[in-house]
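Lab notebook page, bench 4
Experiment: in silico fold of construct C2
Operator: M.H.
Input chain length: 370 residues
Purpose: comparison with the prior construct
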Amino acid sequence: MTGPGDERRSAVPATFGASPGSPAGPYPEGPAGPVGPYPEGPAAAGARPAGPAASAAAPPPVAAPPVTGPAVPDAPTLSAPRARTDADATTTATATALATAEPLTRARALASPLAAPDSHPQGPPGPPARTLGPEAAPGRGGPSGRLPRLRIGTHAVSPAALARLGPTPHAAGLVLGADRRRAAVTIRLFRPEPTRVALVGGVWAGQLIAFRALALGARVVVVTADPSTWAGFGPAALGRVGDRVEVRVDGRPMAATGTPQQPTLVVHDLPPGAAGPATLGPWQTELTVLRRLDPGTAPALRDGDLCVLQRLSAAESATAQHALRLPPDSGRFLQVMADDMLTLVGGGADRHLWISQTAVEQHLLGTPRR
């Protein structure tokens, strides 16, 4: 016949001594030989502690597993008085036995995971605990994505150090191509003051510059004696018929004005001596297309703010070298440039470049040529 506390008592293994009817053994070796039977405490000798829990029997002994760690001293525990139960009787019997046992026995009992009484049933094992990595550590933005609040204070800067601070300038303007280092080459085609550019080459190069000026939001006015060459340029470039491209065949004065939001590019594609320079205002640029360079058109190179050259013949190269005061090596290089190359002279931008033609420009204008 079993009582209400028998299940809990049977679940509590003992780690001390041996019962009178079943002595424990073998005993561990000591410095002077085998250690004899451990002294029996009141619970091990069959004594019953006084009080309501006197009917609780001591649990059967179980041999403690070997331990290699140091002995752990007993620590007193203070708690408020409460009602005694069958589990308290079992705990009292275990504590009494541990208090009267040898130090080695108490060390084994305290170090063993079986020494703690299991007065509450354990639930089923759950999933293993998740280990958080360094990226999920507090203050580094865990799975919730929260970051610690930044503490930004004030900084004192001396006037001398503040004067040295400034934005980094970046190239801006109309992109013509790339140099031998594959860096973008840009020109300031539109400025607050009137600007004049001379182009020695074919109509293809003039249309390329005009098309890229349209991409900047400019208005293009073409004055030409060959309107068939420019026919359809506006609708093809803009995709529609608009007022941003105008082709004229006469030299009447123009009323076009330029603003920073919409500058004006005036393209002069006329025979030599057909018309003089146009009257320009702010944010207006004149692009003079010289299909052939000779001594009669050479003054346009000297009067321009910038010269753009395609591949030249030997005679044209000699004229350009004399008008622009180029070194002999540059004069010879102008004769062997590739079709997709340009040379810029003037305005501190003396360099050679390769035209970076886009797919749209190639479809509209075709391959580079003069």
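Observations: DSSP finds eleven helices and twelve strands in the chain. The two ends are 117 Å apart (CA to CA).
Next step: discuss at group meeting.
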